[in-house]
Amino acid sequence: MARTQNRLTDFGKTVVKALIEQDMTKTELAAQIGTSPQYLSYILHGSRSGEKYFKPIVAALDLDNQQTKSQ
Asked: What does pTM read for this prediction?
């Protein structure tokens, strides 16, 4: 059986940190941006690019573009 990637990407780490700071769950963020919690997890772990969700995630968490540009 193939083992999947279990580590967060740099972007994923930034998102998780912001979620903690804002007392928000991944499920709440997923609902806000219009995707499933599982797909959000795929994005945060790098299994999916989630390109169309990048800007909505940044906006929902009010992340600074400088925080996310290098990721």
From this structure: 0.81
